[in-house]
Amino acid sequence: MKHLLDFKGYTKEELLQILDLAAEMKESPDAFRDALEGKKLYMLFEKTSTRTYLSFSVGMTELGGTHYSQNWRDSNFAVGDVASETRYVGRNVDAIMVRPKKNQTLQDMAAHTTIPIINGCDDTYHPCQALADVMTVREAFGSHKVNLLYVGANNNTFRSLLEVMGLLGGTVHGFTPIYNEGSVTEAFYDAYRASGTYVEVPSDTEPTELSELIGGMDVVYTDAWVDMEYYNHPDHVEKQKAIVEKMAPYQINAKLLGGSKAKVMHDMPIHVGYEVAKETAERHMDGILNQAENRRHVEKAVLCHLLAPQARKAG
Fold it and tell me: What is the model's pLDDT at position 102?
């Protein structure tokens, strides 16, 4: 059974097929309006969401399928056995998209189902976002082989970028002084360092040095400094203050970018005035919104790849 929990088990050729299909779907959405007719998607949210909820809901509708959404706390996943609950859901629908707090939840669900599980973002990986990111890069540069500087937390988005860029041939330069816990070991990063697709930027790099590095980049990518699960959490106020103080000199703004022509990317939600200055965010907003829109197109392609691999344009 093929899932999308991360990119382990996926080949470069498979990813290119998904991205090519996503591009077709973006160009000619009506041509795929019946691609998943009769198929049903269950969406389960343990974490808050805007883009994941909307992109999967609209995407499944555009493909002619049906979707059902439920918050984790309102389901019996919150109080019962994950394995048996997953088995039950699998008797009613054709695929499950889950947005859990922990990667282990996904692993447990995938081990006890006969239908595809799609990772809508957990504490370790965010594969759907990474697919949208590389689709956006290809639209802008005609290739995935770009130099991308990631500035922010070593988090789920960053790890999935390493995976997908590693497969497609781009290079990720990572300046990540903040580390968000996830289910990976140092061996995960060592593999990408060894392949040359990951260049670690030292955490003691000065803002002026980072600005110089940006001069050679095609893309500057940033993300929220504080995990959204804790952004408004009263128990994390002091930790958040420390992170903001540490990262403030590295805000993506006109000064840091200098004269760079690099494309600024952000996976949203944006915390204006923190990881990116308001003027910079607005200047690059069309591209950022296109990046967010591409979530829908790649997710539609993923759904077809898992549920109807023969799906092509109608007629």
Answer: 96
